[in-house]
Amino acid sequence: MNKLKNEVSVTIADGKILKGTHKGIIRADYKGKSIKIEVMVVDGLYRNLLSVRSLTKKGFLVSFMENKVKIEKDNFEIFANQLNGAYILNLQIRMSDDMVYTSSVHEDRNLWHKRLGHLNIKGLKLLGLPFSEEKCSICIEGKGTRSRFDKHIKNSKKSWRIHSL
User: Fold this and answer.
1) Is the Cα dihedral 127, 129, 135, 139 positive or negative?
2) 85, 82, 57: which is closest to 70 by C-alpha?
3) Cα dihedral angle (54, 102, 104, 137), rounded to 10 degrees?
4) Is this structure's pTM higher than 0.70?
5) Where does the pLDDT of residue 149 fall: very low under 50, low under 70, confident under 90, or very high at 90 and above?
6) Contact, 160 vs 142, CB < 8 A?
7) Higher pLDDT among residues 90 and 53, named by residue
8) What percentage of the chain has pLDDT greater than the value 90?
9) Nearest C-alpha neighbor of 45 from the set 80, 9, 92, 12
10) How far apart are alpha carbons 9 and 21 in whole angstroms?
11) What is the pLDDT of residue 63?
C-alpha cells in the first residue's frame, strides 16, 4: 500500500465524508481464478466496499438482477448475491507483509444496533446481526425514569389546603 500524496474525499450513503489515505493493488481468488483489485484504505469504514462507479470507469459492465449482481470484463465475470439488502462478494484475499496493518479494522459491534434505531439484542439475534453485550449509553438514558414523588409531604407548620373545583 502506498500513502496518497493528497487524501481523497469519499462520500458514503449517510452523507458523511471520509478520507482515503492509502492506495494499492491486492490479489484475490475467486472460484480458483486469481484477480488483481485496486483498493483504497478509507479511515472510518467498517466494511469493504466496492465502487460501481469506479468499476464502470475502468470498463467493467455491472448488471443488477433481482437477487444478484454480475460484474464482467473480457471473458471474466464475478457474481455477488444479495443478503439483507447488500450484495456480498465472496473473495479470498491473499495477504502480503505490507498489508498486515489493514487487517486490523475497528469493528463497532453496536453498528447495527445504532443503524436500526437502537434495536434490542433479541431483535438483532433474530436478524442474525452482530451485537455487543455492552450497555448503550443512549439506551440507558432513554430508559431513565424520574424520581418518585412522596405522597405525604410533612410540614412542621400548619397550612391551609386549597381545593380547586
Assistant:
1) negative
2) 82
3) -40
4) no
5) low
6) no
7) 53
8) 2
9) 12
10) 9
11) 92
Please state, in angstroms and rounded to a whole number, the distance separating the CA atoms of residues 107 and 29.
24
> Is the sign of the CA dihedral 12, 102, 131, 49 positive or negative?
positive
Total residues found in the chain within this entry: 165
Question: Following DSSP, what letter does each residue of the chain receive, concatenated?
Answer: -EEEEEEEEEE-TTS-EEEEEEEEEEEEEETTEEEEEEEEEETT--S----HHHHHHTT-EEEE-SSEEEEEETTEEEEEEEETTEEE---EEEP-GGGGGGG-----TTHHHHHTTS--HHHHHHHT----SSPPHHHHHHT--PPPPPSS---SS--------
- Cβ contact 53:39 at 8 Å: no
Please list, in sequence order, all residues whose beta carbon lies within 8 angstroms of the beta carbon of residue 87, skipping any fewer than 6 positions away: 68, 69, 80, 81
Q: How many CB atoms lie within 10 A of CB 39?
A: 19
pLDDT digits (tens, 9 = 90+) for 74-90: 888 888 888 877 788 77
